[in-house]
Amino acid sequence: MKILIYGVGGVGGYFGGKLAKAGYEVTMIARGKHLEAIRKDGLEIESIDETFTIHPKLATDDLSEVETPDLVILGVKSWQIPQVASEIKSVIGDKTMVLPLQNGADNAEKLLEILPKKNVLAGLCFIISYIEKPGKIKHAAYEPRITFGEIDNVKTERVQEVHQVFENAGISNSIAENIQLEIWKKFLFICTVSGIGGLTRVSIDKIRESDYLYDLMQKTAREMIAVANAKGIPLSEEHFQKTFEIINAQPEGTTASTQRDIMQGKPSELENFNGYIVKEGEKLGIETPANKLIYECLKPMENQARNTSK
User: Fold this and answer.
1) How confident is the model at residue 25 (pLDDT cuts 50, 70, 90)?
2) CA dist list (Å): 172 to 143, 162, 251
3) 69 and 213 belong to one structural domain
4) Of 56, 171, 183, 245, which has the fewest CB atoms closer than 10 Å, so is most exposed?
5) What are the DSSP calls for 195-251, one per residue?
6) What is the rounded CA–CA span in Å between residue 305 and residue 310?
7) In this structure, are 23 and 166 located in the same domain?
8) Mean pLDDT throughout 4-33?
9) What is the rounded distance in angstroms from the CA atom of residue 97 to the CA atom of residue 91?
10) Which tens digits make up the pLDDT trace of 3-12?
């Protein structure tokens, strides 16, 4: 199987590295000094389980050099998906599968606005990893896992094939019974902690210590569940309770990647997190005051970050 990894950050770099290590034909789209280092010395993966270096078949920033892949794994941020989808149209074929692994609730929908339905899968992943330096990915915590499936949840032959590829590469993975529910379960957690983390600029354990902020997180999550339910996603009280069990179990010093982007003045996934809930709430006639407060307070910083990065 020919695999294209678009975006060789913590997610794309780790999973792409594991696939290349297993002998699959992996092409990586990277940029700048990271790309230079991969071309020169390969991509090093320092994991909690093992450390290894791989040399992809091709590392490039030019899609015109890329052969038509069987599978594309998107390792970019959710707000980058529309641009990336437009770019990869030139290399995908009738049978190419495009698998998004970003945080966010509507990544597959964004792809469907640009790519044919036959090319799009839906997915998510669990991993804590990042670029430690050009040419090196650090997997710092959490046993990596991918959950994915067809948008209509049919267990097709092609998703079974992808499952086997991940198995062969030693990547823990599962084909979801309801991929939309699985995406929203993760979204419920990550959106609840990310925006408020960006506002307070402290770790999750510090946020938990404030009764006011803990209540605000709960209101944020309740609004997300209301929006999800209106969209036909069966998030429940059980999922709410489980989300806060996870929040309460986060070790000292834990922050979310979107929070870190906000704190570093980088473009973040704010629009795809709290902003998405606010806008979907408006469409569906659901009040989302907690999410709107967080979104509107962070939006000026987000606008500034995007103007600066142009």
Assistant:
1) very high
2) 8, 12, 23
3) no
4) 245
5) HHHHHH-S-HHHHHT-HHHHHHHHHHHHHHHHHHHHTT----HHHHHHHHHHHHHPP
6) 9
7) yes
8) 97
9) 12
10) 999 999 999 9
